[in-house]
Prior knowledge:
By secondary structure, this protein is mainly alpha-helical. The protein has a single domain, classed as Orthogonal Bundle (Ribosomal Protein S7). 49% of the residues lie in helices and 8% in strands. It contains 7 helices and 2 strands, in the order H-H-H-H-E-E-H-H-H. Strands 1-2 form a two-stranded antiparallel ribbon. Strand 1 and strand 2 form a beta hairpin. Helix 2 crosses helix 5, helix 3 packs across helix 6 and helix 4 crosses helix 5. The protein starts with 17 loop residues before the first helix and ends with a helix.
Amino acid sequence: MDPKLFGKWDYNVEVEDLGLRSYINLEPxxxxxxxxxxxxxxxxxxxxxxxxxxxxxxRKHKFTSGLCSGKYQTIYQFVEEAFDxxxxxxxxxxxxxxIKALENASPYELTVSQQIGGIVARKPALxxxxxxxxxxxxxxxxxxxxxxxxxxxxxxxxxxxxLIAASLNKDESYAVAERKRxxxxxxxxx
Length: 190
């Protein structure tokens, strides 16, 4: 008998995106914590570690997350509560909803700056699968963090709403809107 996430949900989820399949670790564990091992972290653990420090947003650290330095147990409870809300609202396995949200939020193309002589030109570039996954996690977390900052809604509720919106590929999700904006910018740079 395989262990279940939070003792409730099976890890039997199919990753449809072939590029992300080898980078999304769905190894069955009861507690998503690898005790500091950085290689091959489980995907829910990566979400929890991203939630602990969402990171800066924009150039020159315009928006920062300097106030965030939470305890693992607190963020763990937020994620467990968010997954409860997801399963209650969608009647689906929350791991499947989370994986679908990652697939929908991960960009295929980005723009990079290239200096040609004295000018800086923007060029489109394909994104590697690992970077796609990292960007999707970062944007999901930053979107939920920005929506809960100075608001009365709890982090778990906001995170659940962000994951559900991203899994349905709606523009309400910050991560999906950012992915579409980045891909449109890359298309314009051709």
